[in-house]
Design a protein that fits this description.
Blueprint lengths: L9 H63 L5 H28 L6 H17 L1
Length: about 130
């Protein structure tokens, strides 16, 4: 037979509170793991697709650069045409790397939802103890 809430001793109440806090902590850890796994999986998959697309585009880009060098070679020395094309391509590539690296580093890996629920749990524990 279960005792009513008012008839439980202080020891029983603290025991129940300890069990509930333990369960809550395990659930929060599981939430944090799930949230981090989702973020890491998404970033990893996206990076893999970017790398594959980049490799294919790079091959085509090299062919186009060779065409531009040969085209410019009809009006100037081939070495000068290659130098001009190389400097321009390197400048554009450096700018692209800088731009997208800064965007990539802004990704926040912190499990924000978990942190918020932990704060709420802390407030709940303070109010109910």
């Amino acid at each position: 037979m279960q005792q009513s809430r008012d008839e439980r001793s202080l020891g029983e109440l603290f025991s129940e509170l300890t069990r509930e806090i333990s369960t809550l902590t395990r659930q929060e850890v599981a939430l944090a793991k799930t949230e981090l796994s989702a973020k890491i999986g998404s970033v990893g998959r996206d990076l893999g697709l970017v790398a594959a697309g980049g490799a294919v585009a790079y091959a085509g880009f090299l062919v186009l650069l060779a065409f531009v060098v040969l085209l410019l070679g009809t009006v100037m020395s081939l070495w000068l045409a290659a130098l001009i094309v190389g400097v321009i391509v390197t400048a554009i590539g450096g700018w692209l790397v800088w731009k997208y690296w800064t965007a990539f580093t802004k990704v926040n890996p912190t499990p924000t939802e978990t942190m918020q629920t932990l704060k709420e749990d802390g407030r709940w524990i303070k109010e109910n103890v």
